[in-house]
Amino acid sequence: MGEEQVAALADVSLSIARGEHVAVIGPSGSGKSTLMNILGGLDRPSAGAYRFEREAVGAFDDDQLADFRNRRIGFVFQSFQLLPRLSALQNVELPLVYAGVDPRERRDRAAELLGRVGLNQRMDHRPTQLSGGQQQRVAIARALANGPDLLLADEPTGALDQATGQEVLALFDELNGQGLTLLVVTHDAGVAARARRRIAFRDGRVVSDDGDAA
Fold first, then answer.
1. pLDDT for res 213
2. pLDDT digits 0-9 by tens, 48-83
């Protein structure tokens, strides 16, 4: 007997405009993480199409997807995913290393970004020497390194206390106010409430969308 196929997403049709702040909500297994992985070029849709502006991302091969992720997408995760042996500055430099940026230029860019997230005095600290909130700020700076068009955040405050989480969300608000498109996947109603648009998933389908992309 063949295995039954289960669709992680089904009949999903979405358009997100440049500069939007979107929260994707729903219970575990609802499809929201699958959506984020497809939008970020980590997974391919098995059917249908995904276009990012004029790029047919759903048809990209592995090399094209890797290039797309590095050029156009920034990722922020609940667990930070910093390399423990590298300093904050070196962690932020990594995407610039992969992009082939000159060492001096990438160091200057990483230092600028760490200053932007309020970590001027922590550049040489390793992750174990930083608080959870500081580690997440390093992760945000790293996500911004290549000037992405879209920032994807998966439960970005899930490992933080409430006060620190609010600081991270305020930084997201600031970045979105500067024109960065932001999509946050969350279980937290308070996090979702800060977005201007909320899309709810259940069983792989959109069950509500309280805003239309302009």
1. 44
2. 889 999 889 988 999 999 999 988 999 998 889 999
Residue 89 corresponds to which tokens in the numbers above? 């500055």
Domain boundaries, the chain: 21-209
CA 186 to chain centre: 12
Instruction: State the Cα–Cα distance between residues 74 and 141, nearest whole angstrom.
Output: 9
Cα separation, 44 vs 79, whole angstroms: 23
CA distances from 211 to 12, 103, 109, 139 (A): 15, 43, 35, 29
Cα distance between residue 107 and residue 103, in whole Å: 6
Q: What digits encode the pLDDT tens for the residues 155-194?
A: 998 888 889 999 999 999 999 999 999 999 998 889 999 9
Overall fold of domain 21-209: Rossmann fold (3.40.50)
Helices (H), 117-211: 132-143, 162-177, 189-193
Enter the pTM of the model. 0.89
| Phi and psi angles of residue 35, each rounded to the nearest 5 degrees, phi first | -60, -45
Contact 183, 36 (CB under 8 A): yes
Contact between residue 164 and residue 170 where contact means Cβ atoms under 8 Å apart: no
Closest CA to 88 of 35, 20, 138: 138
